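Dear support,

I submitted the protein below through the web form. The confirmation email said the job was done, but the results page showed an empty box. After a refresh the structure appeared. I'm attaching both so you can tell me whether what I see now is the final result or a partial one.
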Amino acid sequence: MLERMRLNARWLHRAGHWAMELIVVVVGVLLALWAQAWFEHRRDAEVHHETIEEMDALLGRALVQTAARVAADACTRQRIGELDEALRASAGEWRGMPLGDLPAGLQAGQFPVVYLVDTDVLPLAIFDTARQNGTMATLAPIDRRFYVQVERQLTWLNSVWNGGGDPSARLALLGLDGPLGENARDELRLVLAALDTENRVTILRAQALARLARERGITLSSVDLATYRAKLERDRRLFGDCVVEVDPLALTPVAGKAPGAARP
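What the results page shows now:
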């Protein structure tokens, strides 16, 4: 009887030991699973945050680019009109009205038929990435609707910029110097018409993007603002006082900033 009790006690001791080991293993597995889930959640949250930052940065880039186009709109339309009139009146020997202070990269070639205004290539793949990595799905409906609307406006903007030739995120201008045949003049007038259309569409998209940014309460970063001011100063050197500084989020003239006024 005593031996049986000792066997039972030994068995209970071993069973308790095994149970404790099992509990430790189970707790360890559960902690490992929890830690893995926590790290994956944290990684996904970081990916989503970075994706949202990239979408916001793209919006800021587009706001700056389109606001600069609005600021130089009067210059662009005036320049297109002057060139078109000169092409119509030309009898073959036509010397264009090249602009001064051109960057060195734009001074090559006898007939550099390029843009009068900025164009850009917008990396719209970030919106596809946001859908694929789940960022869009984590957004509140109102936030998701905002980024969908931004993507739509940027897609339209990208279409007109890409359709115009070779956009390369730089200032480009039309400057001609030399004899032009009738066919060449007709082709150049078609280019001017396309430029005019691109400019008008860009301004429409600028208005839509600025409205979305205002409704969202977005402000431009210091980098974006510095880029915008650099564009204004560059355009004023090229075009003169017809460049009017505008608020990139309102697209209205900045109070107290007369055309051509020097910055402090």
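Response: this is the final, complete result; the empty box was a page-load delay. The radius of gyration is 31 Å.
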